[in-house]
Amino acid sequence: MTVTVRRACASPEAAEALRRAVAADTPEFVSLATDGATLTISLTARTPASARATLEDLMACLAAADRLPSPGGSAADRRGERADEER
């Protein structure tokens, strides 16, 4: 079973920062890639339960990494910029 998840980020730099933040703890059956402001996570698992467990771990890591400050400002600043762009 292969699962692919795409996450829109505020900028290409934010997507790359998230990719780098979780890459070190990512098992070999998970691939991470960026395309512009999109982070793509693909994983291959033997069972749906295994895929779910891996995705839950990755989502928790991404949520934590998203709260870390970046050189261009804090994560809250990035969320604020994204919200301003949507208005």
Topology summary:
Elements: E1 2-8, H1 12-23, E2 30-35, E3 38-44, H2 48-66, H3 75-86
Antiparallel strand pairs: 1-3, 2-3
Describe what you observe in this structure:
A hairpin with a 2-residue loop joins strand 2 (30-35) and strand 3. It is globular and about 35 Å long. It is of the alpha+beta class. Helix 1 crosses helix 2 (48-66). It contains three helices and three strands, in the order βαββαα.
- Biggest sheet: strands side by side, in what order? 1-3-2
The portion of residues forming beta strands comes to 15-25%
Q: State the CATH class.
A: Alpha Beta
Summarize model confidence as the mean pLDDT: 82
Query: CATH superfamily name?
Result: Alpha-D-phosphohexomutase, C-terminal domain
Write the CATH fold name: TATA-Binding Protein
Largest sheet: 3 strands, antiparallel
CATH architecture: 2-Layer Sandwich
**Low-confidence runs of at least 5 consecutive residues:** 73-87
Total domains: 1
The span between the termini is 39 Å
What is the SS-derived class? alpha+beta
Element pattern in H and E? EHEEHH
What's the quick description here?
The protein is α+β, with helices and mostly antiparallel strands and 87 residues long. Helices cover 49% and strands 23% of the residues.
